[in-house]
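Give me the fold.
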Amino acid sequence: MLTGTNINLYKKIMNKYKDIQLIASGGVKDIEDLKTLKKINPYAVVVGKAIYEEKINLKELAKFAL
């Protein structure tokens, strides 16, 4: 809903469950959210509405692809 990611929750989950392949989903509002998420290294990130609402363009997003 473009409100920003819940980075603290993701950190807690990843610290508690070391072997989890976390998929961060929901709230990604801009490229800064992706930079923040990259620091905790989730398995994947779902980016939907931010693309649809043109808050993130595909060229920017491609920089975060494998």
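Residues 7-16 form the longest helix (10 residues).
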